[in-house]
Task: structure prediction
Amino acid sequence: MRRLEQELKSLNPSVKLLLLLVGVFHAALLSSIVVLLAHVLTASALVALGRVRVKRGFALGALTTLVGYTWVNYALFVSNLGMTPGEALARVLLLDARIIAIILYSAFFVGTTDPVALATSLSLQLRAPYTYAFMSFVTLRSAPIILGDLENMIAIRRVKGYLSWRHPYRYPLSLLMPILYLSARRATLMAIAMESRGFGKYSHRTYMKPTEITLRDWVFAGLYGAALALATVASLAQ
Amino acid sequence: MSNPVVLVRDLRVSYPLAKRPALNGVSFEAGEGEFVLVVGPTGSGKTTLLLTLAGVIPSLIPARVEGLVEVAGRSPVEEGLAGLAGTVGIVFQDPESQYIMPTVLEEVYFPGENLALPRDEISRRALNALRMVGLNGYSDHQVETLSTGLKQRLAIASVLTLDPEVLLLDEPTAHVDMRSAREIYKLLGELKRSGKTIVAVEHRVELAEDLADKVVHVRGDGSCEVYSSLRDLVEKVGVKSLAAEGVWLPPEYASTMQCSEAEASRVPAGDPLVEVGELSVSFGSNLVLSEVNLRARKGELVAVLGPNGSGKTTLLRVIAGILHKYSGRVIVSGGPPHPSKVAFVAQVPELQFTERTVEEELASVLQSQGYKGKRALQKARELLNARGLSELSDRVVYELSQGEKRLVSFLEMELLERDLYLLDEPIFGLDMKYSALVVKEIERLAGEGRTVILVTHDSWTLFLLNPRVYGLSKGRIVFKGSLQELISSRDSWEALAFHPPRYVLEALEEGDLERALGECSARLRCLYEEAGAGA
Result:
């Protein structure tokens, strides 16, 4: 298991990204139960084998989305499209399977991909300009700082007793301005820090840990492609 | 000097829509291996000067630049920041905003990778830079797990991999404890000796004083004068003028003859207001506080000292009732901690702001106490008038200087009229003038019988406030006692990253501590009074 986990984490991020995108479109276009079940099972296996640690916040968010999505679609199918409860439930479960597969694929990708390797691979394998490739990475880097600011702001508003039920809109507005101000200030400083370290000076750069497409990626692509092909054939044979 | 590495002639920098130039006729030069110390009050344009030398202005931050600026024979105005990368390195005060990569080694690889250097060369430079700053044992560490002091050293290492001719430093020690600050200046001394030209803005002038080959004094109107040393500056401009302007000066520059010995009136400490027993806090597997015991009485002033990452802010957050996951006993005003029982002044004032203008900001606190809109605004204006800050009334809070923001954040917390005030690094990043005003506010609170617990890196504050001291190191209380006991207890200094002012240290070595403590406090008070605390 450890070996498999390591292999999955060592996959080329661009290859992984492209294959998972193919998988998502496959699940979206072929909405048969066999295909969707295959995707849910494959994605679950990848999450399990990659030993992806799903954070409680992420899991809660995904679950809430799923519950809301199920309920809204079920109600729409029954009341607007006039389906019977059984038909509506079957359709909703198929849609849910698609959403579950997408959530699991996303969790697998985020949980097994090193952001620096992703930026490197986008630049080396997909030939994206490295200044753009690093943008996603810098955004990820800034997220915990912004969340920390938000947490502190909420705490201080509790100290100030700043929550009026008569003017509930004031509270989110009071968070918006400082978070924008602080984020802009920090982003400016980080941009200066990056540029002063030569970022963007040349159109090319050296990579101390260059990514490449190896046999491992071909094996993974072959196995994943075979799973999709099998699911497609089974779906057509139904 | 034959070939100045940094040459500035009659530099004027004006930001769009600004009423006056940020820099107005600045001229100086620096040769190879020279250290230029830049001093001046908050908002005088010191950072603007560094940003112009680095090429940030006008390439990234728009402004009109007039006059001559040359760095290593190149024009920052024409070549911009990216063009000068490799020639100029810049380090800011906040290390959090400067690191880019997740691990220490990747961070020092980053500049060499961008300059498209060969891999062997990048590796050689990176390892060399880590060795120079003393981080060679941290290569595989995640940057976010480092202390603030180590992060700042990493920022310097990252810049050193570019092998720049000129190093620009904007208050590099503002966020770090005294031990880390001294280590950073020891490193800068080595870089200066190796031929690097360094231009540094620094409030903690006692650290840079011995290294400085010249001192550039930027005045409040953006003009400047160059002096051969800090002493030369003090002799020519005068202690009173410099202190009134807000320039930080070590206590030995003040004369005790003119200083009042008056102590702040203090309400005698009463019953316990805060009791912390066997407090432990963990974040995941990281034990941040371990079996901490602390007690603060009504009307008492307590200072919590300790190096970066020792758990000081976490302790304040538990007492404030903001952090709930802890084990042990915490009692505030006879019950469990709750945000409604305390006033909390955060390190970053902007985190407190909720409104647009200063008067609206203060009025918002009054409104939460039941005042109606117009009445709240009226009372806010009265408070600003009473404090001599009426000109701030209709200013937008985000447009204030850092010192003014800090004062507003203090005033709004004062309006809460709580028994307990928790202050997290209340004077960090402030010039002497605003530090004096903040110290005055702290004295006012203590004088009114409020309990104040403050977290600070700044040993100067302790000599003015004379608080009871708790020393935190690696999450444990390693010292408890008076300031005098702390000064006498040299064994605790290392763990607390504490370093008393040079003046006290010399007196301690001469064995006349009591007189030195009294004199140091009097001299500091004298400086602070000149700076505005006595107004």
User: Anything to note?
Assistant: The longest helix of chain A spans residues 130-160. Residues 130-196 of chain A form one domain.
